[in-house]
Design brief:
alpha+beta, 17 helices, Serine Threonine Protein Phosphatase 5, Tetratricopeptide repeat, five-stranded antiparallel beta sheet, 17 strands, about 15% strand, Heat Shock Protein 90
């Protein structure tokens, strides 16, 4: 009673000890993992601040180097403008003169070039006839004569007066070709505007008066295209005057060129600074960002004596050139450039672990505020990696515990299953031994007690004893052979034999064994040799086991067919019965040792459970395979496939 009460307590204590041994490392791992994540977050914040500061320094240094190299080129007296990148312009400034490359990049110029105006003397007679005498036909005739002058200025002045007189006399349509002729005159100014620009604008005015909207639109579109192409270097006032009229004629379809306007405003600012027209003194070399109507332009300049060279780049150039260089230098951080001065531009202290570092123009000497940011996904990735390591560690502990428990349970179950199989095997073998021993005892008793047995009966009894003895011998040899096979000590003496002859001999011997059981045992064997390299005794035992199983599992239909086939490379031996059959799931287990199927017990079939395992072992030793095809209730077919002998010598006659 005391022993019975102690055993549950002992098992409970072992379980508690096992749980403690497993739980303590797991709890420790969880605690350390949480602490590790906390420390990693702190380190991540500090590392982020360091990375941001370093990335910001690299970006500023890259931008400063690029701008410094550009300023050095612009300060060289021998430098001349080349083709400017898109969205940018090169400018050369001297007192009273500004030249841009390309000219179409600027909407207007700080100072327009001065063109020659028509002289007043040639037009005194026209003015007198037109205004004093009111003799418009006379004035018109004089203007026509002067329009043929070889001097472009005189010709331009005469054409302007001729068109004006025609409008006065109500011949507006006749004034259109006059302005067309004036549009061919270049290098001359009319009231400080280029004569050809005046002519083009006046044609639009006349077409509007004549109510010819389609012609007006075509003329205005062409004028707008030439204006945008930089055909006339106008000052800001003139450009805005012409643009205002074009806006009226073209309406919403005319979109202003914000970039050209912003570039012009930046160049104008630089010119005003360089000439002293604005407050402050311009440094010989420098850079500045300016914003006009939301469009930012960066101006970089360098001077040599009275000459000042500059480069102005718009937003597109900023992003494709300067910003791209800064981003490459600041990897893995992101960089953006803001126009300076930026009211919010203050350098964020690294100690705060901020996600943004801003460097103002005052700190860096650059024309922008440099903003460097670091995405939170970088830290998230680092923390996720740590978290995964922790979870992997916990998972490993759980897997280890689960695997240990699984293998313990599996080992116990396998041991119990093996114990059951061994018990079933011993019972089956005992039964197999008991049957021939019982027969021997019975016939011994009959021979000892019956004195009046005829010689014929004695012979029959002795034959029965011989068969029982042979059966017992085969059973013992099978067990011994199987033990040697399992231990790898069963030798096989392979020799070239005729497989067909061997099958015929075994079938003949087995037919005598089952006499009286009413079995129809048929053997199909075509004439010719079936050469195989085999151990005759072992191969015969394998075939005998298949035949014995066929008899045991044949049930009502007692028909067994044995056939031997051959190909160029193989010899096959098949044993077919019409018995109870084998299910698809059990076909994978029947070649395991000690395994006997449930159907065998239900049919009352006795056996040791090693027959098919021995067959598979023997066939494998002959470099062959064994296959089974079966259907429940229809019977089974076992086929031994052996490689055909490569020895070309004929099979010996005694084999």
């Amino acid at each position: 009673m005391d022993t019975m009460t102690r055993r549950p307590g002992t098992r409970r204590g072992l379980l508690i000890l096992f749980g403690t041994v497993v739980a303590l490392p797991a709890a420790t791992l969880v605690f350390l993992g949480v602490r590790l994540l906390q420390q990693d977050r702190d380190l991540a914040r500090q590392r982020r601040a360091e990375v941001l500061e370093q990335a910001s320094d690299r970006a500023v240094r890259a931008l400063a180097d690029d701008l410094g190299a550009l300023q050095k080129r612009l300060s060289d007296p021998s430098w001349r403008p080349t083709e400017a990148p898109p969205d940018s312009v090169y400018v050369l400034m001297t007192p009273g003169d500004v030249r841009a490359t390309p000219s179409s990049a600027l909407a207007y110029y700080p100072v327009a070039p001065r063109l020659r105006e028509p002289p007043a003397a040639p037009f005194t007679e026209i003015e007198g006839a037109e205004f004093k005498e009111q003799a418009l036909p006379k004035a018109l005739e004089i203007s026509r004569k002067l329009a043929g002058s070889a001097d472009p200025a005189v010709r331009a002045g005469a054409l302007v007066r001729q068109a004006r007189i025609l409008r006065k006399v109500g011949r507006t349509a006749d004034a259109l070709p006059v302005y067309s002729a004036l549009a061919t005159v270049t290098g001359v100014a009319i009231n400080e505007l280029p004569a050809d620009l005046v002519a083009r604008r006046m044609r639009c005015v006349l077409l509007e008066e004549l109510a010819r909207p389609d012609d007006l639109r075509r003329e205005a579109v062409a004028l707008d295209a030439d204006l945008r192409a930089g055909r006339w270097p106008l000052d800001q006032v003139s450009h805005e005057y012409i643009s205002a009229q074009l806006d009226e004629w073209l309406g919403p379809a005319r979109r202003p060129d914000a970039n050209a306007k912003a570039l012009a405003a930046a160049v104008d600012w630089l010119y005003q600074q360089s000439t002293g027209a604005a407050d402050g003194e311009l440094s010989p070399n420098g850079a500045r960002s300016l914003t006009t109507d939301g469009t930012m332009v960066t101006v970089v300049w360098g001077s040599a004596g009275q000459r000042l060279a500059a480069f102005a780049g718009g937003q597109e150039h900023l992003e494709k050139e300067w910003l791209e260089k800064a981003r490459k230098a600041a990897i893995p951080a992101e960089v953006s450039l803001l126009a300076a001065p930026d009211p919010g531009a203050s350098r964020s202290p690294a100690a705060t672990g901020a996600a943004v570092v801003r460097r103002s123009a005052a700190d860096t000497g650059l024309p922008w505020t440099v903003v460097t940011t670091l995405g939170s996904e970088i830290d998230a990735a680092r923390l996720e990696g740590r978290r995964r390591m922790l979870l992997a560690g916990l998972g490993a502990v759980l897997v280890l515990v689960a695997a240990g428990s699984y293998f313990v349970v599996r080992s116990r179950n396998r041991e119990m299953a093996l114990t059951r199989l061994q018990a079933d095997f011993i019972a089956a073998v005992s039964h197999e031994f008991r049957t021939p021993l019982t027969a021997l005892r019975q016939f011994n008793v009959l021979l000892e007690e019956a004195d009046d047995l005829t010689p014929e009966k004695q012979r029959i009894y002795h034959q029965a004893q011989s068969r029982a003895t042979e059966r017992l011998h085969r059973l013992v040899e099978s067990l011994l052979d199987f033990g040697r096979m399992e231990a790898g000590r069963r030798p096989y003496t392979l020799q070239r034999i005729d497989g067909g002859a061997l099958v015929g001999d075994v079938v003949h011997e087995f037919r005598e064994e089952i006499q009286g059981h009413l079995f129809d045992l048929r053997c199909s064997l075509e004439p010719g040799e079936y050469p195989v390299d085999a151990d005759p005794e072992a191969l015969a035992r394998a075939l005998w086991n298949l035949l014995d199983n066929a008899v045991k599992y044949s049930a009502a239909r007692r028909e067994i067919d044995v056939s031997v086939g051959r190909t160029d490379t193989e010899v096959t031996i098949s044993v077919r019965d019409r018995g109870i059959g084998i299910s698809a799931g059990d076909q994978k287990r029947i070649f395991q040792k000690f395994v006997r199927l449930p159907a065998a017990g239900a049919q009352g079939v006795k056996g040791s459970g090693i027959g098919l395992a021995m067959v598979q072992h023997i066939v494998a030793a002959h470099r062959g395979t064994i296959r089974v095809t079966s259907e429940v209730g229809e019977g089974s077919t076992f086929t031994i496939v052996l490689p055909k002998s490569r020895d070309q010598r004929p099979v010996a006659s005694d084999q």
